[in-house]
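> forwarded from #structure-qc
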């Protein structure tokens, strides 16, 4: 039996789907992965090949909507699937879901699944009823492609509801909500909290994200500036990188935050655990997520959480137990909740312990993968 995963970004296969592939491989499946730009990721490519997986290159532009390039992607995927003849195909993120699902139909793959991991730029502000031409096109393609999926996986109930409300997914189409990508609770184990001279948990905040506007990076930096003026000892860490997404923050903005010591910028990390260990409260003021992996990793390491009352984010926090939910784009809310932790450090310990419990009970990667494999018909 053969299993093919269609991805638009090779590193994410290891980071977000690695444990799922291991679990499927352990059941005796031959694993195939396809993604673009393999030469840019020699380390990840070697790692996947060493695990016994076959990795194939397909042309795909991660962003943009050039119809000729997208047609090339579709034709390449159809040719690849006819060559491999997989029994199962799982596609995730926008372009793989659209063209991977179309290709699986054209190549007559017996079992095809789509995983909606987060809606991103193509769904920004859609609730307002105003959609750009680009958004309308993407939504039309989604609606057509998902007709051909056997089942569609979502990472939170809000995204599933939105797809139903926007008529992108037929109400009769099998759809399942899974608890994100899960987190490896062994790799992300509880670490001691940083402490001040009095032995109390130190107020040290952290955000890990691609440096995009819709991750709430600007709100985080502004809240940091306001809180530091009042509490100069508070620390604000930032991990991430600027990419070519239309909503990316500018290098000038980042340089200004670093220059005036608003944030301590770590750059891009292949292992985020040292940054989580150096912090006591994890902050993600994102406008919308699938299920944010970084929040799950911080929870597993026993950190309190501040995140937005937004799709995907709100699922990770029981408000007042393992952290606080704040309004989307609300700097005032962020400042207020940060000050709760500064003024009452005991909250940091209590909420951090509760985060670990929730990570163990709800987000353990092995439970999440078992759920997905059962829904795909790979487990009884």
């Amino acid at each position: 039996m053969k299993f093919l995963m269609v991805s638009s970004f090779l590193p994410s296969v290891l980071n977000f789907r690695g444990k799922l592939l291991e679990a499927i491989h352990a059941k005796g499946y031959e694993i195939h992965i396809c993604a673009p730009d393999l030469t840019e990721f020699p380390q990840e490519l070697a790692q996947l090949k060493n695990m016994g997986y076959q990795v194939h290159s397909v042309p795909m532009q991660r962003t943009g909507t050039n119809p000729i390039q997208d047609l090339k992607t579709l034709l390449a995927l159809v040719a690849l699937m006819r060559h491999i003849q997989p029994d199962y195909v799982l596609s995730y993120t926008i372009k793989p879901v659209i063209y991977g699902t179309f290709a699986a139909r054209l190549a007559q793959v017996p079992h095809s699944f789509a995983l909606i991991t987060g809606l991103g730029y193509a769904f920004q502000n859609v609730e307002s009823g105003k959609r750009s031409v680009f958004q309308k096109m993407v939504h039309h393609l989604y609606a057509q492609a998902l007709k051909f999926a056997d089942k569609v996986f979502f990472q939170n109930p809000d995204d599933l509801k939105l797809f139903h409300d926007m008529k992108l997914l037929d109400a009769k189409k099998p759809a399942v909500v899974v608890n994100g990508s899960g987190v490896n609770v062994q790799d992300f184990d509880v670490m001691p909290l940083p402490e001040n001279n009095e032995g109390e948990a130190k107020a040290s905040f952290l955000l890990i994200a691609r440096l995009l506007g819709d991750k709430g990076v600007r709100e985080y930096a502004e809240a940091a500036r306001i809180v530091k003026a009042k509490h100069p000892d508070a620390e604000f860490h930032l991990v991430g990188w600027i990419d070519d997404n239309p909503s990316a923050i500018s290098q000038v903005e980042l340089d200004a935050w670093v220059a005036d010591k608003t944030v301590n910028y770590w750059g891009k990390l292949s292992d985020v655990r040292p940054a989580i260990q150096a912090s006591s409260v994890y902050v993600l003021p994102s406008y919308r997520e699938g299920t944010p992996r970084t929040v799950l990793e911080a929870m597993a390491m026993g950190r309190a959480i501040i995140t937005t009352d937004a799709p995907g984010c709100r699922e990770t926090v029981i408000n007042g137990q393992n952290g606080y939910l704040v309004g989307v784009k609300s700097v005032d809310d962020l400042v207020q909740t940060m000050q709760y932790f500064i003024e009452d450090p005991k909250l940091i310990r209590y909420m951090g312990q509760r985060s670990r419990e929730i990570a163990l009970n709800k987000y353990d990667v092995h439970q999440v993968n078992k759920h997905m494999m059962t829904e795909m018909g790979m487990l009884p």
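QC bot note: The chain has a mean pLDDT of 95. The radius of gyration is 21 Å.
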